[in-house]
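Reviewer 2 asked us to include a model.

Predict the structure of this chain.
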Amino acid sequence: MAGLDEIWRRAEVTRRLDVLSGFVAMCVAGDDDARLRLTRVATDADEALSTSPPDLVAASGYLDELVRWAETEWADHPYRPVELRPDEADRQTRDYAKDLRHAALPVHVRDEMGRIELALEVRFLALCRQPELDCRIRQDIFYVAGRAAMALDLGYLEAAEREIRRMEQVGSERSGNPAHQLSPARTGSHPGANRHN
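Predicted model (structure tokens):
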């Protein structure tokens, strides 16, 4: 299976190709020659990304061609895509990477991920509905739920289930209980770091 770094880089290129090719397609709708050029670039980029392993250098070259085309022909267009803020770019790339990784997993693993994802959502919502929880505990619940979701995105199923149990433990505490100390864990390792092989 492809490594996470490769999946992330492929997702980043794919995301930008999708956005730019959509913009160019809108701009060249009435130009047959330009539409043929776009089709060629998009097809070549898709073929580069579909090889095993993906040819990210070639795909990035096709992306650069689209970037130059858009900057040359439609520099002042109000809807010309510009690079997103880093946090928003990462969020969108993460969605692409999640889809790519899931597609590469065996069916039984995807089914198990779906089960854990549903359990996370149900238990998270149940905890959030408890009116007696104070703001600090709610923040900790959100934090641990985020770690569980991240572990799921990366395919670390045991780590995700461990974080769900931890989230439930946090939610069972009350603000007056001195045993509730989550803050050291916020500086801990990645949720998948201690997973079993």
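The chain is about 70% helix and 0% strand. The longest helix spans residues 4-27. We have added this to the supplementary material.
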